[in-house]
Specification:
Among the domains are: about 170 residues, FAD/NAD(P)-binding domain (3-Layer(bba) Sandwich); about 110 residues, Alpha-Beta Plaits (2-Layer Sandwich). About 30% of the residues lie in helices and about 25% in strands. A seven-stranded mixed sheet has the order 8-7-16-17-18-15-19, sandwiched between helices. α2 runs parallel beside α11 and α3 crosses α11. It is globular, with a radius of gyration of 22 Å. The two termini are about 30 Å apart. Bound molecules: flavin-adenine dinucleotide. Flavin-adenine dinucleotide binds next to α2, α9, β15, β19 and α11.
Amino acid sequence: MAYASELSQTGILFRLGSMDTKRKAVVVGGGPAGLVAAGRLAAGGIETLLLEASSHLGGRAASERREGFVLNQGPHALYIGGPAMRELRAMGIELDWWQPASAASVFPRGGKPKRTLGGSAQLGRWFLGLQRTEPGELAGISTAEWLRQSLRSERARASAAALVRVTTFVADQESLSADVAATQLKIGLLPGVRYLRGGWQSLVDALAANAEASGAKLRTRAAVRALARGPEGWELALDGETLRADVLVVAAGGPDEFAKLLGEQAPAAPGPAAELSVLDLGLRRLPHRSRRFALGVDKPTYLSRHSPPDHRDGVLLSLASYVREPRAALEELADTVQPGWREQVILERFLPRMVAVSATPTPAAGGLGGRPEVDRGDGLYLAGDWVGPEGWLVDSAIASGAAAAAAALRSPLPAAA
Ligand SMILES: Cc1cc2nc3c(=O)[nH]c(=O)nc-3n(C[C@H](O)[C@H](O)[C@H](O)COP(=O)(O)OP(=O)(O)OC[C@H]3O[C@@H](n4cnc5c(N)ncnc54)[C@H](O)[C@@H]3O)c2cc1C
């Protein structure tokens, strides 16, 4: 009997390794990072089991359906030029998407929905220069300092800061290393982003299907309580059972989750988390059809239509503040951009505290290149949105998940301790 079905059907003690010359891997966490790692490990011939604590896969990338709308956990866009798309292509995964149009944009300033961003002439020249900039060269300074040094006009600086917020999800730009901002601006403005039909659940479902097709077993309601390196490999304590693995990939979310599992072996967070507040509004129709996207310039706010353009039964707007704010702050944004929205409401959902980035790399921590390494030695690998040198947001989760699997596939069987 295959070991994962043995586990899921009987829950008996499961022993990996000692009698079997074939390596066995366990991936902890069923978000995008864990799903990619599991799929790649299984495709590489390693017997692989993924354990997810909650009742469903996807982590922060999962979506839910309500009133005919698909709601992501806050506004989610996939960067066309990022490593996630590269890895999806490599796995043969195609997703159904649409690209948000920039024509229906407003840029709230002073409580008014302005049509232009402000400081456009200087900003345009700055963007041309940005195309020639190597982001890695900016790892040692903060984004705020970079903008002060490279943009003289205050209006252009405020606009650039707003564009950094929308592409990085980080409002605290004194802490954010400038290589992150440059990386995201370069791919965020051109080639831009895609919104997914079926929400990000379609990405989660595709990654899960890919992992299963490669032979990985995916198990939900399987919280790992503790990890330890034992004589026969890694030991994983779950409720009422112990599992063993030669290859262990921890893809459990952010630094706090890693610390709970790995204790002193968990790397320190390279900087603070970036949290935001989200208000989703399902409306019968938009009071102002030509305002489908808004980027706050003097406030850290965002609004975008997240239902597909051909959705028949209403319009879903996702509003966010890139700092934690009360619901009233987001209603104020809706009043500025879509006055009259209250008469059109089908559904409302307020999420006061969402972690969009689990750790923001600071200049002192060395920017993207200073984030924790994927390969920790001894058969232990890490993956997540704060791990490895490449990418940001889900780009980083997926790139590190793929890198963890690649490193495990390259490495020989670790010697017993
Ligand atoms: C509001 C919001 C907006 C976002 N917008 C974007 C966007 O526009 N573009 C973009 O690229 N990214 C975006 N993101 C980020 C993206 O969702 C994350 O980068 C991605 O989900 C991270 O994947 P992950 O697998 O590393 O972690 P997670 O998605 O957090 O998954 C970790 C999983 O591990 C499980 N787990 C934890 N502990 C254990 C344990 N002990 N045992 C078993 N399982 C465990 C958790 O239940 C969870 O399912 C956004 C995030 C938020 C919150």
